[in-house]
Specification:
This protein has 204 residues and is of the alpha/beta class. It has 5 helices and 8 strands, in the order H-E-H-E-E-E-E-H-E-H-E-H-E. The protein has 2 domains: 114 residues, no CATH class; 74 residues, no CATH class. Strands 1, 2, 3, 4, 5 and 8 form a 6-stranded mixed beta sheet that branches. The chain has a two-stranded antiparallel sheet with strand order 6-7. Helix 2 crosses helix 3. The chain binds zinc ion (ZN). The site of zinc ion has 3 residues, from helix 3. Zinc ion binds next to helix 3.
Amino acid sequence: MYYLFKFKKLLYIVCLSFISCEVIDDTNEYLLIQNCMQEWVKRTNGAILLETAPYGKEDVKIIKMGSNIFQGATIKGKYIIISNVTERIVYHEIGHVIGLMHEHQRPDSFLYITINYRKLIKRNLLAIYSFLPLKPSDFKYNYKNYIYDYYSIMHYNETESGNIIDGHGHALSGDEPSEIDIQKVRDMYAAKPLRITFALYGFN
Ligand SMILES: [Zn+2]
């Protein structure tokens, strides 16, 4: 199942390189994405520079899927695939592109939250969502330098995880980057600011 999902993702990417995508501009979704990019830039105070690029010249393709296949997914930092363009999802996916990892995948997350793996496996969701703990070397930053951030934009919340995560009484994730998310990005790129360009495509 897991590999099937990976294969499916890969297949989309192959298809996308053959089928011409429609360029999206001047829509509410385009404006929402631009606004999220600008907010990341503003809040991280010059640590990153995110801009829209001429189509075909971008570092990251944002692809709006017609059908509800991906609520949001980032693939190799080069593609963001979104079905529902919401502020929370756009902030989260940009978070992946600029180097943030899921907070609930910290190796020490078990100290703070409980993931119901039994439910996860029973519902066949292990392949679709990223729940399993990562290695310290998977993080671009030293996660131990930051307190566990229940409110991170990179934390799955109870609803989207199908009540698989128990935050031990803490609300999980917000709708925008948390103070700690911002701090991590500032720390990561303090020495050398990160520049990334994006273009938005539609694909039905
Ligand atoms: Zn994610």
